[in-house]
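Lab channel / #folding
Pinned by the channel admin:
"Please post every new chain as: sequence first, then the structure tokens as a reply. Keep commentary short and put observations after the output so the thread stays searchable."

First post following the new format, from NK:
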Amino acid sequence: MLTRREFIISTAALAGTGSAIACPAPAFTGKEHGVLMLNAACADPDAPNVFEPAILRINSGDRVTFVPTDAGHNSASKRGMIPEGAEPWNGAIDANMTVDFTVPGIYGHICVPHYEWGMVGLIVVGNDMSNLKSVKKIRHPGNARKVFRALLKELEAKA
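Reply from TO:
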């Protein structure tokens, strides 16, 4: 039986995709999106504990399912990093978690066990960045500080 990483490498080799390895995308369409929870980035095995994609842009009313592709992960909203009026979430370890996003704005999310190590992500709903200032004020431990800073910089550059 192939490991997940061996499967991805062999699939990429068969497809002739070159050196960058893409993770298999969850089968979602239209208003449904998937975020993988991984022990290592597909394109960079030296980047541990990641959400892929790290930044997801969706429309208001869309739904996101966090998929524990590797064991030991969850997704939880980060207090202070969701728009006013939005519902927080805290998924169970090793379980799919589906969240409906109806309030426009920026949502920061974390993997609770790997938060300090930098397993964090952003979801932007409705291309609305009105809560950016409050999102940037939140302090984070360890590597999460560096990763959130980089994600927010990337988000602002593409605004």
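NK: Helices lie at 4-15, 132-137, 142-157.
TO: also worth noting, The beta strands are 32-40, 48-52, 55-58, 63-67, 76-77, 97-100, 105-110, 120-125.
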